[in-house]
Amino acid sequence: MKSILSTLGLIVVAATLSACSRGSNPLGSAAEAAEARPRPATAGFDSQIDANSARLLAEGRRIFRYDTFGSEAFWGDSLKLHEAIAGEKNGGVGPGVSPKTALQLGLKVDAAALPPAVVAAIKAGKVNLDDPATTLVLLKANAVLGVSGVFDRSGRMTSMGITCAFCHSTVDNSFAPGIGKRLDGWPNRDLNVGAIVSAAPNLKPLSDYLGVDKATLLKVLASWGPGRYDAEVNQDLKAARPDGKSAATLIPAAFGLAGQNLHTYNGWGSVPYWNAYVAITQMHGQGVFFDPRLDDAKKFPLAARHQAGHLNPVSDHVTAKLAALQFYQLAIPAPTPPAGSFDRAAAHRGQAIFDGKAKCASCHVPPLFSEPGWPMHTAAEIGIDDFQAGRSPDDRYRTTPLRGLFARAKGGYYHDGRFGDLNAVVDHYNSTRHLQLSAQEQADLVQYLKSL
Asked: Quick one: DSSP state of residue 310?
């Protein structure tokens, strides 16, 4: 039952907003300060800018949380995932997915979307969390993050789609474990995407596309585990690394990317590029997608075979939404580390190490904590293998921005979680770069990273 709430090949998504650097001209400082002060909307073009900003923010938030991009045609109509969720007693197939099972699979529930009567019943212990019918109630209330159910007039679930929030939102657990206030942009490192997808009643569309049998597909999906997803296996068919471990990467954060250029661990493109890539090639939404780099049959054999870089369906549910979606994602700040989660005095010392002896700031340039421009490096420069880099068009790794590291600690650090904690990350660079940091300097540097 663990793999039952199966949904999606997912997403992903991330985001970036350009930061304008202030000049050092003293004559301009007063004018700049005046511009920075909040002011009411004025007549003329300024008022249009203000109105457009408000519209894009609201529209982008709605798209991020609730828009399926027409993915119901795949997850519901083709894979029949909604039937596995509903269960036989509710017009579907099998035992169905109870709220307890859904939470075990890492799905999250937005407490603010719960009807007051449901909240009261849960608190009173009168809600059966082992009943799939309760899951349908939550879906009808749009309370399950990233999962959108389609219901007919009789209340029967007839299809379903997924949204960006499926992978890139979680909750603060303020109501109960897995139930609370939304945390948009935070990676859901509890989400077992592979187990969810494997529960779909009809996996033939996926196995046919990949050119593998069902048993092989299920083996690959089972290899991912919680918090991991492979957004490239349906392009290059590389399901495992050379060492035999899964090629899936950790679900990345979609916060704190304002001012960043390329998105994802190994580049690929900007925020709107990756939003289109994920919405269409991973979430299986309906939209136009163009990338002739995917015509490289040697690097991307499946993509070249299926012309994945030249998609132009009759109906486009994606393109018109990319601008607002990007605007909202770029507005999501990196979260502030919890009080008491790091040693302030040690962090202050660690900052000097970061900027000086350790040379971290040469790539992680404050305050972006990545390089302005093209923040890409070869595997040799980083001191790791080039497997994941080689799955991208540029064969490189992106310099990951560092703010909000605490919110993406689960599962480890780097694209594949190879470093279990920040101590391991610092030790890696101390060794490969021959930094000769003392144990105390390494410890102080870790505290500084925790403070970001």
From this structure: E
